[in-house]
Design brief:
This protein is mainly β and 285 residues long. It is built from two helices and 21 strands. The strands form five sheets. A five-stranded antiparallel beta sheet has the order 1-9-8-7-6, with no helix packed on it. Strand 16 and strand 17 form a beta hairpin. The longest helix is centred in the N-terminal third of the chain and has 10 residues. This is WD40 repeat domain-containing protein.
């Protein structure tokens, strides 16, 4: 069977249900008052990083929850694993404890906690030298030692406390980072020769996005969300190439297999399907 090339898919029924519960329901009032607005994306060097955002947002704080369920990243060489640390002890609710935590996988030792308050999705650069850590609307680019390199801004919170970045992914060659937000935009960020710059902003229309995946060759981006079919975008000219309907249910998770096939997870009913490059659909496991 072709190997999965995506780090996180939410394939279990529990994961699908959790994502469904986190997906805001839209109504006519939402459409009138919550239209998409885009702002200029900026890569701020560490020395000029903006003030951190409110880490609470619309999230409920659990006093016995140590690690954020929103993100996990493993180095390509498996040398470290990273997750969001919400507080260091069950009786501690101090946000000073929060941040991106990095562990050594060989020893299990906690190497560093950044204190950056980011508790959203994480993505590791293919080189293993950079880690992207998302907050609600900002993204930190960290070195593998946790040192801040850039803070990326541009996603909007608007007046909705539930708005947040829901997924991150680096392209296979590491030249691009894609960030996906419930403001219904997908942003591209470019990295080359030690520099970072904001790229294109893709308006996803009525799609309430949940996950994204780069194709194995890096030429396409798939975006899944509960309010429409999976959207397939070209990375080069940033155009919508096609859409892919889930065989049943509402799509929430998407990942590419190494042969270019798409794995789509959906809910109501919970189901898995594999769509090969020719468009043929076969049942998932």
């Amino acid at each position: 069977m072709p190997l999965l090339t995506r780090r996180a898919l939410t394939l279990s029924a529990v994961g699908v249900t959790a994502l469904a519960a986190c997906t805001p329901r839209r109504n006519e009032k939402d459409d009138e008052e919550d239209s998409v607005t885009t702002s200029e994306g900026t890569c701020h060097p560490a020395a000029n990083a903006p003030q951190g955002e409110n880490p609470y947002g619309g999230f409920r704080i659990s006093p016995d929850q140590l690690v954020s369920p929103e993100g996990l990243a493993v180095a390509p060489d498996s040398s470290f694993v990273a997750a969001g640390l919400e507080h260091t002890a069950p009786d501690s609710l101090s946000v000073e404890d929060w941040g991106t935590a990095i562990w050594d996988t060989a020893s299990g030792d906690l190497l560093t906690v950044t204190g950056n308050h980011r508790r959203g999705p994480l993505a590791c650069h293919p080189s293993g030298d950079m880690l992207a850590a998302a907050g609600r609307s900002q993204i930190d680019i960290l070195g593998r030692d946790g040192a801040l390199q850039w803070t990326l801004t541009g996603h909007s919170l608007g007046s909705d406390e539930d708005r947040r970045i829901v997924d991150l992914a680096f392209s296979p060659d590491g030249a691009l980072l894609a960030s996906l937000s419930t403001e219904r935009t997908l942003r591209l960020w470019r990295f080359r020769e030690g520099a970072c710059e904001a790229g294109e902003v893709i308006d996803l229309g009525d799609l309430m996005p949940a996950s994204l995946s780069f194709s194995p060759d890096g030429t396409e981006l798939a975006v899944a969300g509960a309010t429409g079919p999976v959207q397939i975008w070209s990375v080069g000219d940033v155009e919508l190439l096609r859409t892919v309907e889930a065989p049943e249910g509402s799509p929430l998770g998407v990942a590419h297999l190494s042969d270019g096939s798409l794995v789509i997870s959906s809910y109501e009913p919970a189901a898995l399907a594999v769509v090969d490059p020719s468009g043929a659909v076969r049942p998932g496991p």
